[in-house]
Predict the 3D structure of the following.
Amino acid sequence: MTNTQAQSHPRRFLFLLASSRAQGNTEQLARVAAQSLPAEVEQQWINLHDYDMPDFVDQRHAGDGQYPVPQGAMRELLDATLAATDLVIVTPLYWYSLPAAAKKYLDHWSGWMRVPGYDFKEKMRGRRMWNITVTADEDQSYAQALVDSLRLTAGYMDMPWNGSLIGYGNRPGEVMQDESALERATNYFVGV
């Protein structure tokens, strides 16, 4: 991408917060990482708990298999997702996987891919996916299933996977004592 192209198409980072705790450890680590983004990079922060997301209903094999255009909160999430060049899934580790809000959001991608005229999967191709996670265990290998889930999702959507930034924090604010995670956070978006 040339400098002229970069100026006419600024990067837009969408941070999707999935923790059930406001300003929790994972969000704190994400905000440290986001401080290193260049000033011209747009940032949008969405707490998925602020959106009324219905359970996803799989209707791929019913009728024509198409889904209606989402309305209300789901339309806002779809539009924000399509407006982003980079998606950052900001999620603590819950029971070795994604919290329900993050999983429900990703489940709706199955429907969005089948909304006539949206070409969701084609439009997502080439957008970058990132992950910031905090675990309540110092052994970060426990987060592997969560990381694999997001990495495989990115691969399926033909989105470059930019890896996971994983920190440790059990009690509120404890991630801010994880010096290794904080150092990695300041370099996580280097080169953007």
Observations:
- The chain has one domain: 3-188.
- The helical segments are 3-8, 25-34, 72-83, 100-112, 120-124, 144-156, 179-188.
- The two ends are 12 Å apart (CA to CA).
- The chain has seven helices and five strands.
